[in-house]
Amino acid sequence: MSYFIIQQDPRVPGQPTVLDCPADMDPEDWISGKLLAAPRNPLQLKMSARSGKFRGAIIRGTLTLFHDRFRDELLKLGIDNIQFFPVELENPEGEIETKYSLINIVGMIDAVDVANSVIEPREVGGRGWLKSFKIDAAAARGQRIFRIPHAPTLMIVDETLHASLTPLKLPGTWMLPTESYEGFN
To answer: Which domain holds residue 30?
Structure first.
């Protein structure tokens, strides 16, 4: 089975980013893979001043947001391990946009096939810097979207979900084979 990293496409100019995380939220919680309690409602976030006019299916920054269309497609495909929390997103012009949800992918899976991956050692120990990597399908246990402890900010999708999402041509997204990963994020 092949696996892909799904992300906001860095090649698209003017991609928006989330400026910061509210003081009462820890951004590390949102990449932990753990089930989270709903944040206060309405959750208000700001885009960075460098955010352009383009609005894609994914907005990254200190937190990750999915557009409502992307959320709806994932739900239609039976993806049930993502929590979605609506946000009020303030753009650089001060206008509020409401078509995005903060996401939490439930499921941190230690599924990197270390023997067949490139991992640069860290000077201070730890798992090392993940480069080109493969996912062990048995360790992934059939999960269609998940995060990995080696690089918890990455969102990994299996080839089945990749095949279902590709025809949708979700704007501003990029699905990169894990073997093509070069350590950037």
So the answer is: 3-180
Number of domains in the chain: 1
- How do beta strands 82-90 and 129-130 pair? unpaired
Confidence band (pLDDT; 50, 70, 90) for 122? confident
The pair of three-digit structure tokens given for residue 39, joined into one six-digit string: 């944040």
What is the Cα–Cα distance from 153 to 7, expressed in whole angstroms? 10
Q: Token pair for residue 120? A: 């640069």
Closest among 174, 138, 148 to 60, alpha carbons compared: 174
Nearest-angstrom CA–CA distance, 174 and 52: 18
Q: Is residue 185 part of a domain?
A: no
Reported as a single tens digit per residue, the pLDDT across 36-94 is 999 988 899 999 999 999 999 999 988 999 999 999 999 999 999 999 999 999 999 99
Q: Could you tell me which residues come within 8 angstroms of residue 55 by beta carbon, excluding any fewer than 6 positions away?
A: 16, 67, 97, 99, 171, 172
User: Among all chains, which residue has been given the structure tokens 């009462």?
Assistant: 24
Is residue 81 situated within a structural domain?
yes
pLDDT in tens, 90-111: 999 999 999 999 999 999 999 9
